[in-house]
Amino acid sequence: xxxxxxxxxxxxxxxxxxxxxxxxxxxxxxxxxxxxxxxxxxxxxxxxxxxxxxxxxxxxxxxxxxxxxxxxxxxxxxxxxxxxxxxxxxxxxxxxxxxxxxxxxxxxxxxxxxxxxxxxxxxxxxxxxxxxxxxxxxxxxxxxxxxxxxxxxxxxxxxxxxxxxxxxxxxxxxxxxxxxxxxxxxxxxxxxxxxxxxxxxxxxxxxxxxxxxxxxxxxxxxxxxxxxxxxxxxxxxxxxx
Length: 241
Hints:
This protein has helices spanning about 1-15, 20-40, 50-55, 65-85, 95-105, 135-145, 155-170, 175-190, 205-215, 220-240. The chain has about 240 residues and is mainly alpha-helical. The chain starts with a helix and ends with a helix.
């Protein structure tokens, strides 16, 4: 599978720099779909068209302030991710906290960018996140893994495992899923891939793959799910140019 993806990416890289307005159009398309699907996975009821309207600065009647903020915050978090990539900043725990701070801004400012001080559970999952007193230790281990053995992994595997390990730690009270998917795409973008969309219609397969990774440390299903979306995004770019 990776051979096919690497070949497609080589074809895409060979066409760089890509046409300016095509890239802008693709970015806007993926930007919207990423925001809509990531929020919908977490229960946001805005449709994709309503999400587009909110991104344009218009409120939608009958929807909560939280749902509007989730869209606006996700837009700002994506912009932050793009800034990290453009500046070629090294990955850090500080970036994780900043991303989460953006995700929860105006929703729960007291816990935005702050590791949880309470036990939490993941609805429907077998895996139980670590107790709060172990969060710092687990996040230190995540950063050590990233700086060490993760660098020898294929970028897709590294991105997938970063997401899975982070969300398994569940370091924040809320917003872990959105932050994890931002981290996944941050790592892909740093490696020259377009962002991918974990689609709400694939939510069950996504959750099952994550639970398998957390309970028996088998990441294969999740890697396969992410790899398929990488192919879809690269094909979208290749088809456009």
